[in-house]
Design brief:
about 290 residues, Rossmann fold
């Protein structure tokens, strides 16, 4: 398990990787992970399959359901201060947070991504109350507190989650919210698939889908309010939806199963899904 100093050093490498993704996106005008030549062939191939799989998720209505839930959770703190982790050049909820907030701060390891978001905020005339900075959340000052911390596909980038969640709790105002969506590897089938792919993965050093230890660390600092998951029963179908032709044949079944999973809401086995989105509230007292 890496120390905080080791994670900070790793994050510097991660920043360079995501800078290369932004450059690839600017140059190729396609998904940065797919066009990123600094990533190996297997990573780019997997990314291309993931793009097709994400289209299947969208067709199943998961994206719409997730956006609606995030919009509802964000609106509950209208007029508050928002912190977005891994803001990149803008996430699906960035501009809603900016519009509803008194103050918005986006942070990202990549200077290029933070610069890109600042340019977009300026173009929309939002620079007076919203800004993006390139910094490591583990080294961020705790002087400023936030009503909402938003993280879209970010929290699983920490092998040792305990310092991360303690930092996030310290950055929350009393009753502050943590809103996130991340992949999980508690499901043994998903964990096996990830382990098969991991040796070929260019970004393996900072890819750590939620394990039980991650959930335990999270719930020592935060308490659950709401959320749902998808990909428990539809997991294997999810893998094949990224395969040309075969994915098309399985698409209707995948959509039906995924819709059923989302409709279940929160349940005892929610962390056995391949993806979970959730709303948590900082605990009044920390252990």
């Amino acid at each position: 398990m890496k120390s905080v100093d080791e994670m900070i050093e790793l994050n510097r490498t991660q920043a360079k990787f995501y800078d290369s993704i932004q450059r690839a996106e600017d140059e190729t005008k396609q998904n940065g992970h797919v066009g990123n030549k600094s990533a190996n062939f297997v990573t780019r191939f997997w990314a291309s399959m993931r793009v097709r799989q994400q289209k299947a998720v969208k067709l199943a209505g998961v994206e719409a359901e997730m956006k609606a839930a995030h919009a509802r959770w964000i609106a509950s703190r209208k007029g508050g201060s928002f912190l977005e982790l891994g803001c990149a050049s803008g996430s699906p909820s960035t501009y809603q947070m900016v519009e509803l907030s008194a103050k918005y701060l986006g942070v990202d390891l990549s200077p290029l991504l933070a610069k890109s978001l600042n340019q977009r905020l300026a173009e929309r005339g939002l620079g007076h109350k919203a800004t993006a900075q390139s910094l490591d959340i583990l080294t961020m000052s705790e002087d400023t507190k936030f009503d909402v911390i938003y993280a879209h596909g970010v929290l699983h980038h920490f092998e040792n989650p305990e310092p991360l969640f303690r930092k996030l709790a310290a950055l929350c105002k009393p009753g502050g919210l943590l809103l996130f969506v991340d992949p999980c590897a508690i499901n043994p089938i998903y964990r096996l698939l990830r382990s098969m792919y991991r040796p070929f993965q260019a970004d393996a050093a900072w890819e750590w889908p939620f394990r039980q230890s991650t959930v335990d660390a999270l719930e020592r600092c935060f308490e659950r309010v709401d959320g749902f998951g998808w990909g428990r029963r539809s997991l294997l179908l999810s893998v094949f939806t990224g395969v040309p032709i075969l994915g098309g044949l399985l698409l209707k079944t995948y959509v039906r199963w995924t819709q059923q999973e989302v409709a279940e809401g929160w349940h005892p086995k929610v962390w056995n899904n391949s993806m979970v989105t959730a709303l948590y509230r900082v605990r009044k007292t920390l252990p």
